[in-house]
Amino acid sequence: MTTSHLNGLLAEEGGGGGGGGDEEPRGGQQHREMAVDCPGELGSRTLPVRRSAQLERIRQHQEDLRRRREEEGRQLDLNASLRLRKLSQHPHIGIDNPTFLQDSHTSQQLPLGSQHTHALLELEELLLSLKQVRGCLSDQQSQNDVELVLALLNKSDFQSALKIHNAVATSMHRPSPPYPHTHQALQLAMEVTPG
């Protein structure tokens, strides 16, 4: 007797044996062959669970990546808008020194003859101005403040500092060689230099 398996069905060939009826499929059931180490119910149960867990992890990872991209995009938009605002503003080049800016504006506005006159601080003028201010003030705190300033003006250290200030101010406002001495200096310079 020979037993063969075709398409999962068990079939017997041969004759003469009386015990062959036990090996036939009973009640029309089909026999399914499977590997010994993998029973039928185990493979069908764990595979979908494993796949669904993997799919869930993949979805979660994709969602995290999408969130990161959106956040980076928002950060880039914020940075880009800040950069654009800074680029649209006209930045100052260099350091602005108000002393030189003030001198350049006054020298352009004043005629040549009045460039060299600079108001020096005289001690007598300061004292007179302070006494006039004291007469206009009515509250005691302001009166006390004016008295303190008057005491400061009468000290010899302050008077010597004021003299030094006036000397420096006078020397700073002297004309240096680049300043023209006449009104036609620019025209004369243009005639002399090849242009």
TrEMBL record:
Residues 119-176 form the L27 domain. It comes from the Eukaryota. Residues 23-33 have a biased composition (Basic and acidic residues). SUPFAM superfamilies: L27 domain (SSF101288). Residues 1-33 are annotated as: Disordered. SMART domains: L27. This is L27 domain-containing protein. Pfam families: L27_N.
